[in-house]
Amino acid sequence: MGVRKKISADKRKEALKDVAFAKLTNIPSSPRKMRLVADLVRGKEVFRALGILKFSNKEAAARLEKLLRSAVANWEAKNDRKAESGELYISTIFVNCAPMLKRLRTAPQGRGYRIRKRANHVTVIVDTIDNKVK
User: Of 93, 81, 97, which is closest to residue 23 (Cα–Cα)?
Assistant: First the structure.
């Protein structure tokens, strides 16, 4: 690694030390389906968002609920205290595409239809409401 890249990587790592986040990678569902669930909780208070996800019928909601609990646990570990109700909110949540698996389905007359099995990456960043006001 060159010196310039190392310096920028160190700056990025230093900036992430203060941020409580969690990532979930290679989820075997399409990003479009996951974005529908992510839009439900974007900007909400954490415990309210957990309630929304718990009672959602979407399959992606269960995965996102577990990820959000992980982000809250990361925040608690970095701040050495428990999260209280009304203190944390989801400051950022985004869903990116992951590499898709390309498969072949047999079709009539010797042809083959391509099946694209999509996947996604989700990142959740939680922050205190005090920082939001500032």
Answer: 93
